[in-house]
Amino acid sequence: MTTTVNNNYVVGQLCRLLIPDQYGSRGLNEAEGIVINIPAPNQVTLNIYSVGVNPFIANPSYGPTKPQILAIGDYNSGIISATGPSIPSTTIPGAFINISPL
């Protein structure tokens, strides 16, 4: 899918589509998918099965409610940032010091 602005999605991120009825593609409204490719700064490919879904009708005169793609998290990939997934480490100072009473 192509967006009107550049986005910061990363491979492995979970997204949801919100498509108002007047834009067609009713079968993709509320669909969730994982980002599997980023071909350009304003494009993203999701792993959503769309065979048999009505085509999307791009028409900016349909009113104030526009189609949207929303990041809703990631799929067991850790924290998602502009640099990609990362696994945070939690440390508590002094928690792992071996202090034996003997």
In whole angstroms, the N-to-C terminal distance is 64 Å
Report the C-alpha radius of gyration, rounded: 20 Å
The general outline is: globular
Strand pairing plus helix content: what structural class? mainly beta
H/E series: EEEEEE
Q: Could you give the order of strands across the largest sheet?
A: 3-2-1-4
* Main sheet overview: 4 strands, antiparallel
Q: Work out the helicity level.
A: under 10%
Annotation field: number of helices: 0
Low-confidence stretches: none
Percentage beta strand: 25-35%
| Arithmetic mean pLDDT | 78
Please give the number of β-strands.
Answer: 6
Description:
This protein is mostly beta strands and 102 residues long. The protein has a domain at 13-75. It has strands spanning 13-18, 32-37, 45-46, 68-74, 79-81, 84-86. The model has no long low-confidence stretch (mean pLDDT 78).
How is the secondary structure organized here?
Blueprint: E1 13-18, E2 32-37, E3 45-46, E4 68-74, E5 79-81, E6 84-86
List keywords for this structure.
mainly beta
Short description:
With 102 residues, the chain is mostly beta strands. Helix content is 0%, strand content 26%. The chain is built from no helices and six strands.
